[in-house]
Specification:
The protein is an alpha/beta fold and about 170 residues long. Helices cover about 50% and strands about 15% of the residues. Bound molecules: zinc ion.
Length: about 170
């Protein structure tokens, strides 16, 4: 999960929601991904999708070898769960739980879609994984607040100028 957190930090540096993922095979990281949705303006540019795509390329196969595991800092969305099943990921470890509590993670993992079941373990290094997200969203709110105040100050300076000009 440390490696997934490193990837999440790369997303943070790029101003993206910090989510990172890695695919691990035989205790080795075979691919990494981080959220790049804003930069690429792609709805599918999730950390898990990138990591899985890269792993498939590495193994020259859409079906990952038995025993592949995915580590991701946030509970996967249904699209990424679908990608895990399609690539036959055997085990998923995630860090932070999806806040809204509306995730379908376990339901999808256990539905035996595609005749493949994926084991899911949540809450791995949860504090660090959710901490980086909290940090991102609170600093984003702070920036928005500062921007709002700056605009307000600009506006009142304009009004003053106008009044002085009369
Ligand atoms: Zn996703």
């Amino acid at each position: 999960m440390n490696e997934a957190l490193k990837s999440a930090k790369r997303a943070l540096k790029e101003g993206e929601v910090p989510i990172g993922a890695v695919v691990v095979y035989q205790d080795k990281v075979v691919s990494r991904g981080y959220n790049r949705r804003t930069k690429l303006q792609l709805a599918s540019a999730h950390a898990e999708m990138t990591a899985i795509d890269k792993a498939c390329k590495k193994f020259h196969s859409w079906r990952l070898p038995e025993g592949c595991e995915l580590f991701v800092t946030l509970e996967p969305c249904p699209m990424c769960m679908g990608a895990c099943l399609n690539a036959r990921v055997d085990k998923i470890y995630f860090g932070a739980y999806e806040q809204k509590g509306r995730s379908l993670t376990l339901a999808i993992a256990e539905a035996n879609l595609l005749n493949h079941k994926t084991e899911v373990i949540g809450g791995v290094r949860e504090a660090q994984c959710s901490g980086i997200l909290t940090y991102f969203f609170s600093s984003m709110r702070q920036k928005q607040k500062e921007e709002k105040e700056r605009k307000k100050a600009e506006l009142s300076a304009l009004v003053e100028e106008d009044e002085n000009g009369k």
